[in-house]
Amino acid sequence: MSLYELLLAPFADFGFMRRALVGCLALALGATPVGVFLLLRRMSLMGDAMSHAILPGAALGYLAFGLSLGAMTIGGIIAGLVVVFAAGIVTRASILKEDASLAAFYLLSLAAGVMIVSLRGRNLDLLHVLFGSVLALDDASLILISAISSVTVLGLALLFRPLVLECFDPSFLRAVSRLSPVAHYGFLMLVVLNLVSGFHALGTLMAVGIMILPSAAARLWARSLPATLLVAVLIAFGSGLIGLLVSFHIDVPAGPAIVLMCGVAYFASLLAAPGGVLAGRLPVRRHLES
Amino acid sequence: MQPDLPPLLRFDNLTLGYERHPAIHHLSAAIPAGALVAVIGPNGAGKSTLLKGVAGELRPIGGHIHLPEFGRKGIAYMPQRSEMDHSFPVSVFDMVAMGLWHELGPFSGLSRAQRDRVGHALEAVSLAGFERRPIGSLSGGQLQRARFARLILQDAPVILLDEPFAAIDTRTVDDLMHLMLHWHGEGRTILTVVHDYNQVRQHFPTSLLLARELVAFGPTAAVLTDAHLARARHLSEAFDDNAPECHVEEAA
């Protein structure tokens, strides 16, 4: 097999592979930077929780309108935002911390979602909602994913300074400005949007994979925030590219292949990166003078 | 105290607390503009609570805090336990530069002049050359210096410091104390929670001795007497859940 057949032919010959690649690029540019901030805010697992929370909205849209892109998207976004704001209100008004109130809402949301899907369930449809269909992205889905990525890049640019402060010194941000809740909830809205966009390509369960895994890998390499963001985006897109090729050549599902490639990048970084597990076990190098 | 200056901050029968239990009880005092005040008292006396109240982090459950005309915008507050996430990948320069928030807001970049001011602030706390280091690589004392550099840039007329010298070596304490005296010379009003009475006697013209209630307020020599300190030590820290409602006259 020539290099051309290995790397380029799948994309040159098949439109669905090109669409999938464009989808991966959009996700890498939008969802992955959001994942970096989730990671830095120690909310990695919260992304997972949120991805379950959007299920009933998507399911309701599906129940009412069938496999309609618009209905499932809007349903997913509404369900995600309801959970985010309800958890926020409970956190502020009760003694429960954010993780507890969020867990309560997303568990309920997930149960409701599975119930709704099974009400009119053929298992195939449930599989689509849970695992996405990166190889069957139509024009409308592609435009949706790209639009959400564009909004995300713009939103992160606008929120960047307050969000960074909210991450590393929230009490200082509260002391000097009133933007703390704007940064917090604005960011959570971006999380919901990107989970919905990721869910069309990778499904609700794996959308978080392309957010968190490249971010965790990048954090092991980079020392500054801009570098972390850049490395994470590159890892995410690279994993998308290789995952699609693997899926094409050995005929495995594309979504899991992409997330597994992110996992390969993560483990490789754990071994090789300066922040990884091996770096601390290497022979001690001669120390510097000061 | 400088009785000729009008009061800048006034506590009027102020009660601050948590879940109805007072941590500051019926405090009335007037802080003159430009005063350098040591807020002293045993643990649990309400010192941090008072600063939180002035900073606006805690709403009074009785009485009033009369703020100066410029409001909370002119108050810089440095809490005791920083919530700062030291593992966050941000440089010392960027962290200190955020002291310019009131000039920069969420969007503006730093002008050359502002970059220079950040540089000068770092020099003033002997952290020149640390600009590009990540904050996670600083020692406890260096981090406290960086927080002071950020305070310099905040350029606030009122500065609240909650135990700025906790777990800091003497040289750093001397440097930071020097900086506070410099601010005092510039006419800023400073409230600092301190535990070292020698330091208070040496540097702070005014003291406010708390033991949940006000024990004494005035020139340090008159406040730090054996009788006052003995009274402060008898403070009961206990919160009694069955305590009756307090009915001290609201208009004290």
Automatic annotation (TrEMBL), chain B:
Domain ABC transporter intervals:
9-251
SUPFAM superfamilies per the record? P-loop containing nucleoside triphosphate hydrolases
According to the UniProt entry, its GO molecular function terms are: ATP binding; ATP hydrolysis activity
Keyword Flavoprotein recorded:
no
The record's Pfam families line, in alphabetical order, gives: ABC_tran (PF00005)
Q: Which UniProt keywords apply?
A: ATP-binding, Cell membrane, Membrane, Nucleotide-binding, Transport
Alphabetized InterPro entries for the sequence: AAA+_ATPase, ABC_transporter-like_ATP-bd, ABC_transporter-like_CS, Metal_Ion_Import_ABC, P-loop_NTPase
Signal peptide region: none
Against PROSITE patterns, the record matches this protein to: ABC_TRANSPORTER_1, ABC_TRANSPORTER_2
PANTHER family linked to this entry = IRON TRANSPORT SYSTEM ATP-BINDING PROTEIN HI_0361-RELATED (PTHR42734:SF5), METAL TRANSPORT SYSTEM ATP-BINDING PROTEIN TM_0124-RELATED (PTHR42734)
Q: Which family does it belong to?
A: Belongs to the ABC transporter superfamily.
What's the protein name? ABC transporter
Q: Which organism is it from?
A: Parazoarcus communis SWub3 = DSM 12120
